[in-house]
């Protein structure tokens, strides 16, 4: 099993400890590739649209994005970890998601993302995890990922791991350790079922690409959909 982990910060705080509890149960059975933001995606997306209008190879930050993308495409399990910053994902993670605009369904989704499994681990002081998780789940859904398991933890009054009550630490890590043992027994050779919401995004994008092709047959996105056969009877979630 190949696991790709995207850490939304470089800080080794509560979220890092929770992520480690999850991964420790998988280290013997999985090959883990880990990234830390912003170190592994240090430059801001400039919104130049080169990745969408021309090709992803023209992104000014391709040296970083290519490594992240290949690791996610190769992975059987994607793990995203981040603390909540003002009710949303940390800016470094949002920046990484911005760099993958070209992989949204309306442009050039990667076939390998359909049927992939993902885990989100996050925590906040008080509330905010729901809106932060939505930031990431929106991108995952538009990438084609249907199976997303979310672990949200709420802290009250203290955000330092060593100062949290031992009972609280055991409760959080125990839940993740149990979940990791479940994931360790999954047959990753069998892709997950693509849910209706993702399929609807695909079909809406398909209609859009057919329309685009009538006036702009040289569009990079249109050509990509043609090359994959998605404007015909081929579907990315089918072998």
Write the layout of secondary structure elements.
Elements (H helix, E strand, L loop, with lengths): L1 E6 L6 H11 L6 E6 L13 H4 L8 H13 L2 E7 L7 H9 L17 E9 L3 H15 L3 E9 L10 H18 L12 H20 L4 H9 L11
Parallel strand pairs: 1-2, 1-3, 3-4, 4-5
Helix pairs in contact: 1-6, 7-8
Notable characteristics:
239 residues; alpha/beta; Rossmann fold; 5-stranded parallel sheet; 8 helices; NAD(P)H-dependent oxidoreductase
Rg calculated over all Cα atoms: 19 Å
Give a count of the beta strands, DSSP E runs of length 2 or more. 5
- Which structural category fits the helices and strands? alpha/beta
What count of helical segments does DSSP give?
8
**What is the CATH architecture descriptor?**
3-Layer(aba) Sandwich
| SSE string | EHEHHEHEHEHHH
Stated plainly, the CATH topology is called Rossmann fold
Q: Any idea what the CATH superfamily is called? A: Flavodoxin domain
Average pLDDT number: 96
Weakly predicted, low-confidence segments: none
Q: State the major sheet.
A: 5 strands, parallel
**Beta strand %:** 15-25%
Organism: Aristaeella hokkaidonensis
Protein name: NAD(P)H-dependent oxidoreductase
